[in-house]
Amino acid sequence: MKRCRLPLLCGILVFLLPSSARAAHTHLYNTPVYHWSSRAPYSCTATFTCSSPDCPDGPLTLPCSVTTKRIAATCTEDGADVYTATVTLDGGTLTNPETKSVILPKTGHKLTKESLTKATPSLAGLLVYQCDNCGERQTTEIARPKKAALSRTKYSYNGKSKKPSVTVTDSTGAVIASSHYTVTYPKTSSKVGTYYLSVKFRGSQYSGTLSKAASFSVAPRSTEIKTVKARSKGFSARWVRRQTQVTGYQISYAANRTFTKAKTKKFPKTATTSAVISKLSAKKTYYVRIRTYKTVKENGTSKNYYSAWSAVKKVKTKK
Fold this sequence. Notes:
- By secondary structure, this protein is an all-beta fold.
- The protein has one helix spanning 7-15; strands spanning 33-36, 44-48, 60-63, 65-71, 79-89, 92-95, 100-104, 111-117, 125-131, 137-142, 145-150, 154-156, 166-170, 175-176, 181-184, 193-201, 209-219, 225-231, 234-239, 248-254, 263-267, 274-277, 285-298, 301-306, 313-316.
- The strands form seven sheets. Strands 20, 21, 23, 24 and 25 form a five-stranded antiparallel β-sheet that branches. Strands 4, 5, 6 and 7 form a four-stranded antiparallel β-sheet that branches. A four-stranded mixed β-sheet has the order 12-17-16-15, with no helix packed on it.
- Strand 8 and strand 9 form a beta hairpin.
- The radius of gyration is 51 Å and the shape is elongated.
């Protein structure tokens, strides 16, 4: 073998050869770093970095292939569009472990009424709905009408019929709108006595009738004491006469303002407008009041209706 006479020149020539003529560098790429775009529709890139310390090249960034899978929303659960990114390098495919999602809100049920059983005073009703989307059935109970309450239950006679307003509630205590019923009042309610009204239900949710749903009473008109005068171991009293819808009067008297252990006396004629009360303690103060009453036949039985008591008068008996 002949030796090169110009070894330094040969070395320079080797260095000047193109890179393709030199030995090829093998890259040792680490796991790539993925970069998603900030908003949908999402795109993604993967950046590879060679771990070899003498690598002559910088990082390598490649576009990813992005696929979308739709998870449909249901009536009760959200859905999503799920984005997945993959990248291919040197014949191998890598998948980004991080996915991106766009939430699709749940649709909610689209309900159609399937059947209806109306509520009555003795039985609750039932509404049945079915969802047009998922077929799920839902039921709603209609609470039965339970009772009626009046705006006023006690009146004093004035010759006119009474018509208190009515509030109807169901078995849960909730108020039923007046559009669901009609109220039937007595033909007349001007006289002293007790009166009943009925409630008849109508419309799409209720049926039936509450008979004698509520009642109110009319008492006789009250009277007042004109004078109270002392007498020996007693007193005399005079009062205002009441004739219409009155049977008589009742006087009450006691030795205290609260009328504890009070005594009463009836006067069963409307024409009576005065009375003498005797056999009391001498030189003692008594408190006196009066009211009217009316006796009414109801269902074959006599019943007394009383007015409110009058203002109280006081008197001190004589010796």
